[in-house]
Amino acid sequence: QVQLVESGGGLVQAGGSLRLSCVASGIAFSRYSMGWFRQAPGKEREFVAAINTSGSLTKYADSVKGRFTISRDDPKNTVYLQMNSLKVEDTALYYCAARIVYMTNTNYGRATEYQYWGQGTQVTVSS
């Protein structure tokens, strides 16, 4: 049974920080590229960040570049999203996702490319 379980969400004031964690089980974690997506009420799910299998390459949405950092710890089967300088517009339900990449591509920002998804963790940024 494949499971991705996010944690670390909560309520934080604008300008503050949070670190989200996603623990994977039931998959060979080191063989999967990982991503973070978010969805606010009434809006479509949007790409936030992605990291390749080795951790050597990362990608970010323009809206979070310079503020968020994605990383992975394969021995712990965990991917992280460090969020700094949070803004009210960052408020959303944050999901982690996993995908197999057979050949190098630029599809990391497409939700349909990911095979497995977590249940989400809520991040609320107050003013």
For the terminal residues, how far apart are their CA atoms?
Answer: 40 Å
The tally of beta strands, per DSSP, is 11
Q: Which value, in Å, is the CA radius of gyration? A: 14 Å
Overall morphology: globular
Q: Per DSSP, what share of the residues sits in E-state strands of 2 or more residues?
A: over 45%
Spans where pLDDT lies below 50 across 5 or more residues: none
Can you count the helices? 0
Order of helices and strands: EEEEEEEEEEE
Write a short abstract of this structure.
This protein has 127 residues and is mainly beta. It is built from no helices and 11 strands.
Keywords for this entry:
globular, 127 residues, 48% strand, four-stranded antiparallel β-sheet, mainly beta, single chain, seven-stranded mixed β-sheet
Describe the structure.
With 127 residues, the chain is mainly beta. It has no helices and eleven strands. Strands 2, 4, 5, 6, 9, 10 and 11 form a seven-stranded mixed sheet that branches. A four-stranded antiparallel sheet has the order 1-3-8-7, with no helix packed on it. A hairpin with a 4-residue loop joins strand 7 and strand 8 (78-83). It is globular and about 40 Å long.
Topology readout:
Layout: E1 3-7, E2 10-13, E3 18-25, E4 33-39, E5 46-51, E6 58-60, E7 68-73, E8 78-83, E9 92-99, E10 116-117, E11 121-126
